Amino acid sequence: MDSIKIAHLSKSFGQQAVLTDINLTIEPQTIYGLLGRNGAGKSTLFNIISDRIPATSGEVVIEGQNNVNNDRVLNRIYLMGERNLYPSRMRVSDIFQTTAALYGRMDMDLVHQLSSQFGLNIRTRFAKLSTGYRSILKLIIGLAVDVDYVFFDEPTLGLDANHRELFYSALMDSYAKRPRTFVISTHLIEEIANMVERVLVLQEHHITIDETTEKVLNKGYSITGPTADVTAYTAGLNVIGHDQLGNLRVDYVYGQLNGSRPIPDTVSISHIDLQKLFVNLTSQEVATFEN
Ligand SMILES: Nc1ncnc2c1ncn2[C@@H]1O[C@H](COP(=O)(O)OP(=O)(O)OP(=O)(O)O)[C@@H](O)[C@H]1O
């Protein structure tokens, strides 16, 4: 099994640049979280990888071959996108059958098991499904179709908390049985933080972070204490944001702390969660991304 290599990929819509010179390797058998603020270009990236829209320049190479109009390699990937591609009068059961025929391989036992667990009536016509059940239909396909790369674009849109939990556990079960790559784009960062092995952050048209989740979390710190002590301690560090409450200040740092600098008794240091880290990294006008 090969990787997906994205080289010098750029995409503009008219005058608006969305992706600029993206270089990225998506490895086999890895669960990724793709994080980016609204409008950052996550769906655009997914749509180009799956050849639903053309890139302005650059290329996507899947298992050694350029993806454009290449059914052989496009058949190795599945994109669960935002768009609803199915005819409104089509029944759920027919959508499953059609997709199975298109890809050649689908775990129909899993389809029926998940349909029953999610309470999805397979006799229903697509048009009659609620937003949540449209997501459920598409995520069942994403879990059951036998491909090497699955791209989930906002997979839990409209799902209640119970169904989101069910999806996460079904994904982990499926991954354990047949390891393959899942790239999950979501704004519910903390819900996927424990599942994802690598974190990708898309910001300012670029991939600014491509690291293991463990490394990313190890580099995120909050430094809390009286303002003067905190700012003295964090001077020269990569401070990505701060909170202020009266004289109490929290500086958020991404990267190395200064090991030789003594920590004042008044200051406490702890790691921060992925969501807090992401919010601070992407709330700046111009962020810096030190290693
Ligand atoms: N077909 C299109 N024509 C013109 N502009 C587009 C088109 N598709 C996307 N865009 C623009 O490209 C930018 C990126 O959109 P995209 O949907 O890829 O972002 P996203 O990161 O998936 O956002 P969100 O998290 O809000 O879903 C947005 O400014 C959007 O308006």
Q: Your description of this structure?
A:
By secondary structure, the chain is α/β, with parallel strands linked by helices. It folds into two domains: 4-203, 3-Layer(aba) Sandwich (Rossmann fold), CATH 3.40.50.300; 216-282, Alpha-Beta Plaits. It is built from ten helices and 14 strands. The chain has helices at 42-49, 71-74, 92-103, 108-118, 131-144, 161-177, 189-192, 213-218, 227-234, 274-281, and strands at residues 4-13, 16-26, 31-35, 57-62, 65-66, 77-80, 149-153, 181-185, 198-203, 206-212, 220-226, 239-245, 248-254, 268-271. The strands form three sheets. It has a six-stranded mixed β-sheet with strand order 6-7-8-3-9-10, with helices on both faces. The chain has a four-stranded antiparallel β-sheet with strand order 2-1-4-5, covered by helices on one side. It has a four-stranded antiparallel β-sheet with strand order 12-13-11-14. A hairpin with a 2-residue loop joins strand 12 and strand 13. Helix 4 (108-118) runs antiparallel to helix 5 (131-144) and helix 5 (131-144) runs parallel beside helix 6. The protein starts with a strand and ends in a 10-residue tail after the last helix. The structure holds adenosine-5'-triphosphate. Adenosine-5'-triphosphate is lined by residues 13, 18, 36, 38-44. Residues 13, 18, 36, 38-44 line the site of adenosine-5'-triphosphate.
